[in-house]
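R.M. (postdoc): so does anyone remember the format we settled on? I'll just put the structure tokens first.
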């Protein structure tokens, strides 16, 4: 170990292909206009010197409008000249976005026509690699309109249970008691609702089969399938297995599938960049003690070990067996028990246990050796670990700096795969980032993933949204403004003691008129570099 320190980051950047004769031009059509889908992802690559072009916001899906598939495809065609690759959300180009892919009323003929039009892109632009990412329709344990069809408000939990039992039945695992439960659920859920859900899933599967066929026809260079909000037994798990069984084995190396959705754009942009530069980054992973790599996180249907490997391969990297020549060393902070509780629960305390301290010590060892070290904080769902983040920002007795701003990447938001994809993606970009840009990306993640998601979000809900009986997901402009003001008041109080005065340089917005996600953005008048902590 220690080869990173011997060659230094500048040479590492050259070896990683970060000194091109001219910036690569990558076209990018995201899932929608949420910060994680668009702004955060694009900003990461632009800071790394990549020219990422995106469609006008008016063409993308938001919480109040569907995207425009026909105009998005026209935009893609118009901007293809000179592109080194195109990374596109097929959900946007076929349905109009992620949420519309679940709630649309489009006939199969329209879906087929849009899919064929997308697959015709390569015939007009054969020199532009086309990387597509799609989602297998999710199986949420609960949800409601407008993120799902309206009937989810009443039947969401039962629909999830019904799907899980159907999946177990398919696998021959259904017990006698479960058979009775399945019959009872089918009596309780109206037949027309069950049929509507199955019709939607069938349309989704049909589109995905068309796209998979495009791999063999040379119409698509790579297809990444995200299993959004899945579970070990669920309709999403079932659909994924059925689909993958049908894929031509000769094309299987061009297709990857794993739990997750919002990190797919980040992952495939990394692949497009690595392919354009002709490099294959080696990534080595280490885990927290306990269940470690065998952890199956909430909202997912496979182990974190499997998810890590699939993410690395999809990003154009390769999972290394040793840390000796790794371009990125990724620490995956899994829960000791293997159970990912919510970040807003009492279990997310401020004190690291012994395994956590050893994980932090190992992370520090890699940093001191000069390794490009990232951390995927997946111990909790929907937010970072309070104890880990505070540990990252604790100075050492020998006077050395804390680790927080010495990392190549950090992520701890939403699902384990979301965090894994961002920590991996921004970690791969680290050799191409100068120190101010690297620290800026880290600051946004700490503020969003830890301070907001683990702490401030729940406080705003408890103090404002719930007492006012607001519809969190459909807040009015005035309600959103009030919530943003409270977020702005609370973020410095929460993050300031850990991150320092840096927090005051940022503004906070709720772009989807709900508390689920925040947009963290530096105020225009501030340009001071982030302190080294």
């Amino acid at each position: 170990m220690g080869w990173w320190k011997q060659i230094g980051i500048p040479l590492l950047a050259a070896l990683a292909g970060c000194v091109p004769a001219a910036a690569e031009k990558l076209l990018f059509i995201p899932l929608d206009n949420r910060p994680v889908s668009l702004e955060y992802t694009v900003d990461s690559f632009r800071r790394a010197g990549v020219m990422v072009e995106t469609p006008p916001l008016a063409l993308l899906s938001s919480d109040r409008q569907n995207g425009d598939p026909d105009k998005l495809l026209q935009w893609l065609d118009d901007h293809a000249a000179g592109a080194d690759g195109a990374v596109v959300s097929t959900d946007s180009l076929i349905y109009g976005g992620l949420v519309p892919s679940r709630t649309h009323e489009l006939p199969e003929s329209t879906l087929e026509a849009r899919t064929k039009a997308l697959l015709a892109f390569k015939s007009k632009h054969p020199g532009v690699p086309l990387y597509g990412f799609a989602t297998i329709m999710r199986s949420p344990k609960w949800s409601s309109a407008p993120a799902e069809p309206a009937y989810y408000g009443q039947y969401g939990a039962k629909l999830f249970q019904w799907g899980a039992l159907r999946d177990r039945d398919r696998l021959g695992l259904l017990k006698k008691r479960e058979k009775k439960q399945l019959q009872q659920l089918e009596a309780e859920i109206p037949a027309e609702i069950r049929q509507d859900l199955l019709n939607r899933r069938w349309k989704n599967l049909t589109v995905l089969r068309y796209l998979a066929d495009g791999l063999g026809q040379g119409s698509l260079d790579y297809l990444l399938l995200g299993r959004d909000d899945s579970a070990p037994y669920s309709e999403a798990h079932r659909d994924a297995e059925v689909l993958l069984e049908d894929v031509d084995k000769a094309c299987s190396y061009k297709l990857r599938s794993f739990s997750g959705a919002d990190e797919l754009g980040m992952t495939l942009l990394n692949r497009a960049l690595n392919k354009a530069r002709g490099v294959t980054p080696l990534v080595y992973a280490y885990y927290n003690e306990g269940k470690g790599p065998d952890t199956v996180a909430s909202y997912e249907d496979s182990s974190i070990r499997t998810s890590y490997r699939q993410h690395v391969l999809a990003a154009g990297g390769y999972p290394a067996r040793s840390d000796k020549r790794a371009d990125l060393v990724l620490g995956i902070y899994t829960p000791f028990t293997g159970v990912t509780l919510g970040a807003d629960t009492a279990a997310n305390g401020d004190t690291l246990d012994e395994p956590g301290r050893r994980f932090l010590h190992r992370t520090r060892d890699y940093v001191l050796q000069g390794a490009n070290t990232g951390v995927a904080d997946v111990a909790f769902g929907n937010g970072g670990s309070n104890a880990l983040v505070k540990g990252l920002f604790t100075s050492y007795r020998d006077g050395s700096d804390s680790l927080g701003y010495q990392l190549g990447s950090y992520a701890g938001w939403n699902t384990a795969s979301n965090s894994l994809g961002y920590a991996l993606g921004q970690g791969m970009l680290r050799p191409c980032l100068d120190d101010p840009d690297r620290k800026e990306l880290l600051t946004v993640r700490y503020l969003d993933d830890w301070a907001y998601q683990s702490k401030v979000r729940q406080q705003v809900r408890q103090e404002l949204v719930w007492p006012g009986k607001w519809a969190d997901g459909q807040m009015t402009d005035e309600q959103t403004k009030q919530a943003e003001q409270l977020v702005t008041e609370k973020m410095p109080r929460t993050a300031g003691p850990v991150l320092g005065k840096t927090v005051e340089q940022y503004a906070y917005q709720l772009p989807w008129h709900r508390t689920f996600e925040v947009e963290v953005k530096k105020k225009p008048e501030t340009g001071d570099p982030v302190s080294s902590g």
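R.M.: ...and that's the designed sequence above, right after the tokens. Also worth knowing: The chain is about 45% helix and 10% strand. The longest helix spans residues 435-465.
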